[in-house]
Specification:
The complex is a heterodimer of chains A (152) and B (384).
Chain A (H helix, E strand, L loop, with lengths): L17 H7 L3 E6 L5 E2 L14 E6 L2 E10 L12 E8 L4 E6 L13 E8 L8 E6 L15
Parallel strand pairs in A: 6-8
Antiparallel strand pairs in A: 1-2, 1-3, 4-5, 4-7, 5-6, 7-8
Chain B lengths: L3 E8 L10 H16 L8 E5 L10 H8 L7 E4 L5 H14 L5 E8 L6 H8 L15 H16 L3 H15 L13 H5 L3 E3 L2 E2 L9 E9 H7 L4 E10 L14 H14 L8 E4 L4 H10 L8 H6 L10 E2 L4 H5 L6 H14 L12 E8 L4 E9 L1
Parallel strand pairs in B: 2-3, 2-4, 9-10, 9-11
Antiparallel strand pairs in B: 1-7, 1-8, 4-7, 5-6, 8-12, 11-12
Helix pairs in contact in B: 1-2, 3-13, 6-10
The chains are: A mainly beta (152), B alpha/beta (384).
The structure holds zinc ion (ZN).
């Protein structure tokens, strides 16, 4: 199911594969070490601090601010059809950063370092395959979430 | 501790070498280095080959290079840490000699970058970053450094013009280097007009792929003194790493691996940044050279833009940087680059660099970065 994550999937497997299922349900998940409480985004199954392999998913609000960005004109294979596109690194409330695309609610002028944004889970509408990703949007943007997490 | 010395150096022409295989490129540099050292193959104990395998049609390229150089049955091995593979080869040769296992070792950095179709290159380019969380959004190599550039501009007021001034300098010196891919000067105006790549970068912020090879012959102190009267000593070998994911870096205005590698290399060589008169730094993108000035301690963090604007990295300034043209003008055959950097420093310290000679160059360094700073090697060279 991790193959759902991203426009092009390079690794369709992971011990945190359920991240993609949560994302499809509208939830942005980091990880929490069950032994020492180390919390991180993106999630990882194995704790880098205490080396425990026991973790649970921890929901993130997706609120954050733009840490850096770039508008890419020269795109690699699999992304030429959407170029040019703007990649935004978001510093998340709760710690950690992620790479997202600029969402439609943000104008070119909105894409400035330090500006608050909301990371919104998305399902790719084109094509039959399930593809999930996220975009950086105006603060306060809302989206649908599945009623309750059905995975650990 | 006894020393390891460079007794021979060779460098082939960098560029689109559709006339030669990777082993033929390696041969050019190897032959020059052996002639330079004035030794026969019998003196060599082993070789270390630096190359990044995914660009070559030939799998396990060290084998074909070793055969073509007629070095069988001597041992060889390949080092690979992306664009820093050449410096990793030098480091492992240094280790092999210091351990006493080998006395004289050839280091050959060689790379064919143009063997692949453009589509294959573009596919590889899309997997430069961490592929699980980042590449799936279409991140690219220039894109990552561009995001460092955005932070550098934001935190320190560095300008795109200052970045492009690095390219202008490097082309200025590359025009004088017969081994360089682009042997022509560029102007800031022309650079600013070039096609956008990944904001703020345009084409003239980026180095170009090239084919090429370079070679060093390293020896232990006793052999080096016996064989050569122009030994350049490799007295500091610093190396460090940083997270693969740039998302997990403490900041995006420098490379922590470069700071750490420099600290270790300076300490080992018993020098400080102020002793360095000539440096080869990893200018894969213009901002990378600006960050290198800072990470290496040539100036304080944040002052790199002013450093180039005030021409302090030109010959006659404080530290002459990339006076062979750098990756920007010379081209970047990724496996060869670290060895090419060392070649230039060896020639500079020997006073053999002609029109590009840095006066009174007694201590020099190479700063070779793999990927987006995941690996950095800093090597300090000294003349007797
Ligand atoms: Zn833990």
């Amino acid at each position: 199911m991790f193959s759902w994550f991203g426009k092009v999937s390079f690794v369709p497997y992971s011990k945190v594969a359920d991240f993609a299922v949560h994302l499809k349900d509208g939830r942005l998940m980091g990880s929490l070490c069950k032994k020492c409480g180390y919390q991180t985004f993106p999630p990882r199954a194995d704790c880098p601090e205490c080396m425990s392999p026991d973790f649970s998913f921890q929901e993130y609000s997706g609120r954050g601010e733009i840490y850096t960005f770039t508008r890419t004109t020269a795109a690699p294979v699999g992304f030429d059809d959407i170029a040019p596109y703007t990649i935004i690194v978001v510093e998340l409330e709760g710690g950690g950063r992620l790479v997202a695309w600029q969402g439609e609610s943000l104008t070119e002028d909105d894409v400035r370092i330090g500006r608050p944004v909301q990371v919104v889970p998305r399902v790719w509408e084109k094509g039959e395959e399930i593809k999930v990703y996220y975009t950086a949007e105006q603060p306060g943007t809302t989206w649908n979430k599945a009623p309750a997490p059905h995975l650990g | 501790m006894s020393r390891v010395g460079v007794i021979g150096a060779g460098h082939g022409k960098f560029g689109r070498r559709s006339d030669a295989t990777v082993q033929e490129l390696a041969f050019e540099a190897f032959r020059m280095a052996m002639e330079d050292a004035g030794i026969e193959r019998e003196v060599l104990d082993a070789s270390v080959i630096a190359a990044v395998p995914e660009y070559h049609k030939q799998r396990s390229v060290a084998g074909v290079v070793q055969e073509y150089l007629n070095l069988n049955p001597r041992p060889t091995w390949l080092t690979e840490v992306a664009c820093a593979s050449g410096s990793a080869a030098i480091r492992t040769a240094w280790m092999a000699i210091q351990s006493g296992l080998h006395d004289v070792v050839a280091v050959i950095g060689c790379q064919k970058m143009t063997e692949m179709e453009t589509a294959e290159i573009l596919a590889l380019m899309g997997r430069v970053g961490e592929v699980q969380w980042e590449s799936i959004f279409g991140t690219t190599f220039p894109g990552y450094y561009a995001m460092f550039a955005q932070r550098h501009m934001h935190e320190f007021g560095t300008t795109h013009e200052q970045m492009l001034a690095v390219g202008v300098k490097n082309h200025h010196y590359g025009a004088l280097n017969p081994n360089a891919l682009f042997q022509k000067e560029i102007t800031l105006e022309k650079a600013l007009e070039s096609e956008p790549v990944s904001s703020p970068f345009c084409v003239y912020d980026c180095c170009a792929n090239a084919d090429g090879a370079a070679c060093l012959i390293l020896a232990n102190e006793e052999k080096a003194r016996a064989i050569s009267d122009k030994v350049v000593w490799l007295d500091g070998v610093g190396a460090a790493t940083a997270s693969m994911s740039v998302l997990r870096r403490p900041n995006l205005v420098g490379l922590p691996s470069a700071e750490e590698a420099a600290r270790r290399a300076y300490q080992m060589a018993g020098v400080t940044a102020r002793d360095i008169k000539v440096a080869e730094v990893h200018d894969c993108f213009t901002v990378a050279e600006i960050m290198a000035y800072e990470d290496l301690g040539f100036c304080r963090k944040g002052e790199g833009g002013r450093y180039i604007a005030e021409r302090r990295s030109y010959i006659g300034g404080e530290v002459a940087v990339n006076v062979d043209g750098g990756l920007k003008s010379k081209g970047h055959p990724i496996g060869a680059t670290g060895v090419s950097m060392a070649y230039e420093i060896v020639k500079q310290l020997r006073g053999e660099s002609g029109k590009r000679q840095v006066p009174n160059a007694g201590v020099g360094l190479t700063h070779n970065v793999g990927g987006i700073g995941q690996y950095t090697f800093v090597h300090v060279f000294k003349r007797d």
